[in-house]
Amino acid sequence: MNNLLGKNTLVLGGRRSGKSRFAEGLVLSSGLKPIYLATGRITDDEMRERVAVHRERRSSDWETVEEPLALADALRQTARKGRIVLVDCLTFWVTNLMMEKADVARECDGLVKQLGELTSPVVLVSNETGLGIIPDNKMAREFGDLAGTVNQNIAAYCDTVHFVAAGLPLTLKSEVKI
């Protein structure tokens, strides 16, 4: 594996920052069987187009698993020796949990616990939501707070964290032991 990829890697960035493309490149550089674990739900035409762009970019080498809620369980089932899993993305997952009125903090704790039990590497993608203006409504502010807390908890656990802006990665954390 290259030195940009840890056992657990978090890739952060804004919308259309290039974070997913960068994460996909990390996964492919591993030489392991790539699994794409998608958390987004297709709820409208814009989301359908967004998903289509992501699918078109990936080769047939990728196996795709769709799981909008039970992320820890999906990782337990898909992460096996010889594989690497790309989770795209944590912010869609947080949105889905909020819409189901689930306990986001408890789900995040379960995800971190599951990451610690896996033997295969995982790359997680998430939006950095805290760089823009403060939203004018309670739900959007709650989402930003929850997404920020999830990002902090996952970043604290991961051995490698990258931030992507304008398609350019910046390594924020690298504790990879080679």
Helix content: 40-55%
* Ends apart, CA distance between termini: 9 Å
Series of secondary-structure elements, N-terminal to C-terminal? EHEHEHEHHEHEE
Question: Count of helices?
Answer: 6
Supply the CATH class: Alpha Beta
Strand content: 15-25%
* Anisotropy-based shape: globular
CATH topology: Rossmann fold
Structural class: alpha/beta
- Number of DSSP-assigned strands: 7
Which superfamily, in CATH terms, is the homologous superfamily? P-loop containing nucleotide triphosphate hydrolases
Are there runs of 5+ residues with pLDDT below 50, and where? none
CATH architecture: 3-Layer(aba) Sandwich
Largest sheet: 7 strands, mixed
Count of structural domains: 1
- What value does the average pLDDT take? 93
Report on the structure:
The radius of gyration is 15 Å and the shape is globular. The chain has a seven-stranded mixed beta sheet with strand order 3-2-4-5-1-6-7, sandwiched between helices. By secondary structure, it is an alpha/beta fold. Strand 6 and strand 7 form a beta hairpin. It has a single domain (8-164), classed as Rossmann fold. The chain has six helices and seven strands. The longest helix has 20 residues, at 138-157.
